[in-house]
Amino acid sequence: MGAEEPPVPVPVLSPLPLLLAAATAALLGYYWARVPRRPLLAAGPRLRAFLEQRCPAVGETFYPTPWCFEGRLQTVLGALLWARPPVSYRSEAIRAPDGGQLILDWAEDADSNWHPDPRACPTVLLIPGLTGSSQAAYLLRLVHRASRAGYRSVVLNHRGCWGEELLGGEDRTPRTFCASNTEDLEMAIAHIKRRYPQAPLLAVGVSLGGMQVLNYLGRRGWAAGLAAAMALCPSWDPDASAASLEQPLNDLLFNQRLAASLRCLISRHRAAIGEKVDVEHVLQARTIREFDERYTAQAFGYRSCREYYQAASPVRWLHRVRVPVLCLNASDDPFSPLHAIPVEAARHLPHVALLVTAHGGHLGFLEGLCPRPGSYMERLFAQFISAVFEHREELQ
């Protein structure tokens, strides 16, 4: 008998590729079944009709990037993925009545010089978010969009965030900024309108800047001096926002990092604010709520952080808004929880429109399988400012 042949080895298939394929199929199935949604638009009938006709994005299904549609991922990657478009600024310093200094950065772009009468060229005033300035990536992209559309852009920098020294009068302590204080915004608008009295002006606030714009509109009513306004990812209830950011993962990803940025701001200006504020106590704050309790409330004359949050909430002013304003929020924004967004109130207000997407995070709004240049937020911004400037007679 011949020698027996050795058995042929049976290949063992690794379960990992099968598991990955199953997980991918499950994720895609969930995505297509649950994720793409048309945004919720809450507005009075006339403003709603204007937006539906002139801003196609409000009625489009939003397809967030399938591999990062969750709100926190959208927030983080939205801040990291996009390149910073080149924008040149010309800075202008304005002295405030309290002795402080405001820095306006005017975008210098050839695309905005085509207007037949530069004095009447529509102007977009942008207000950054917390600790933001004209150099923030999200703001550079908005300025770039406005310039490409042929409009003039100017950024109001928050005090102390541009790199300048905080200044104050002889008997006044220098201050920074907060969501409830709209004095700097009011001064900037008045200055721009004096400089370009024939040019329509539109204000766009981002995050905390959006809160300032909404509070300004409510306080000024018919005298706001704006053709329209926009608030991108504003916080409607600062107390609810602080509670959301204090959740463990949000605290690690966002709260502690923002508190660190605020501490750096205070540390940089300790010589200017140290006389009436316990800087060392402020520098021990580890959350935004602690910072607001130790610095913001005290610096702006509130008895407590809770009182400041009540004063800063834009909801209390909405019924007094008399300028058309479009507000964009995402349901999964870790900075502004859905239950705090005043959707029902907006349905009965003639000058306020609330657009709420199912996903998008905070200033994320990435869309497409491979996120394409320009987010949903940027497209909406470009459509809205063009609609207002080109068809503003329909809003009057």
Walkthrough of the structure:
- With 396 residues, the chain is of the alpha/beta class.
- The chain has a domain at 40-53 and 74-237 and 313-363 and 373-394: Rossmann fold (3-Layer(aba) Sandwich), CATH 3.40.50.
- Helix content is 39%, strand content 13%.
- The protein has helices at 15-34, 45-54, 71-80, 137-148, 183-195, 208-220, 238-245, 248-268, 270-273, 279-282, 288-299, 305-312, 343-346, 376-390, and strands at 40-43, 88-95, 101-108, 123-127, 152-156, 201-206, 228-232, 325-330, 352-357.
- It has a nine-stranded mixed β-sheet, with helices on both faces.
- Helix 4 packs parallel to helix 14 (376-390) and helix 11 (288-299) packs across helix 12 (305-312).
- The mean pLDDT is 91.
How does the SSE layout of this entry go?
Elements: H1 15-34, E1 40-43, H2 45-54, H3 71-80, E2 88-95, E3 101-108, E4 123-127, H4 137-148, E5 152-156, H5 183-195, E6 201-206, H6 208-220, E7 228-232, H7 238-245, H8 248-268, H9 270-273, H10 279-282, H11 288-299, H12 305-312, E8 325-330, H13 343-346, E9 352-357, H14 376-390
Parallel strand pairs: 4-5, 4-6, 6-7, 7-8, 8-9
Antiparallel strand pairs: 1-9, 2-3, 3-5
Helix pairs in contact: 4-14, 11-12
